[in-house]
Design brief:
single chain, 213 residues, mainly alpha, 8 helices, 2% strand
Length: 213
């Protein structure tokens, strides 16, 4: 891992100056950029030195603590499965997570085993706490997403717990047979493919006119 970083400023340096209102192209680009999906935080290439360790096992210097938080955050979100309860993670895996963390932090020479055990405990505790928080936030995010999707549906179905399959094999089949026996036109046959069961689950024919409402 290198200990240097770079920043690409070429696009900023070559950006043409504009005055007045932004062009349509600029507005379109800005809108497109705002709509880009959020990407995962990338793993760094640098190693940061930990200058000291406090009584709880955390780095004492600002850079070390900042890097510590970045790395355990990445581990919690990307190295521990979303369906895993951290308390069920076995010791070999816990040690493996700590080894990942150590790849990005340089601890002082001569740090005792007891002190490193304290560091390990603090690291795993931090990972476990953030993992639980991440799972909770992810659940709320997904819940809100599906709530918004559900809000777009203006017509509620009347399928009940049996669903489409149950209706098609049960009530709807009996209704179709009864209409055929009576010589009545089946109003649902005017709708092709999947639209027929979709509409049938949400509407009823008006008895007097047999129109779908």
């Amino acid at each position: 891992m290198s200990q240097t970083g770079s920043c690409n400023t070429s696009s900023a340096q070559h950006e043409p100056a504009h005055s007045g209102e932004p062009s349509g192209h600029t507005v379109a680009c800005s809108t497109s950029q705002r709509r880009k999906p959020r990407t995962q935080t990338k793993w760094p290439n640098d190693v940061v030195k930990v200058e000291g360790i406090d009584g709880e096992g955390f780095p004492t210097n600002d850079n070390g603590l900042k890097w510590w938080r970045l790395i355990y955050g990445l581990i919690a979100r990307q190295r521990v499965g979303i369906n895993v309860k951290f308390e069920n993670v076995d010791q070999p895996m816990r040690q493996g997570l700590f080894e990942i963390m150590k790849e990005y932090l340089e601890f002082p020479d001569g740090t005792s085993e007891a002190r490193m055990n304290r560091v390990r405990g603090a690291a795993l505790k931090s990972i476990a706490k953030l993992h639980r928080h991440f799972k909770s936030n992810l659940f709320l995010e997904k819940s809100e997403q599906f709530k918004n999707l559900r809000g777009r549906i203006t017509d509620n179905h009347r399928l009940g717990p049996e669903g489409y399959d149950g209706k098609e094999k049960g009530k709807w089949r009996k209704e179709d047979a009864a209409m055929e026996e009576e010589g009545t036109e089946n109003p649902w046959r005017q709708f092709p493919g999947r639209s027929s069961p979709y509409l049938r689950a949400r509407a009823d024919p008006t008895p007097s006119t047999e129109e779908i409402t």
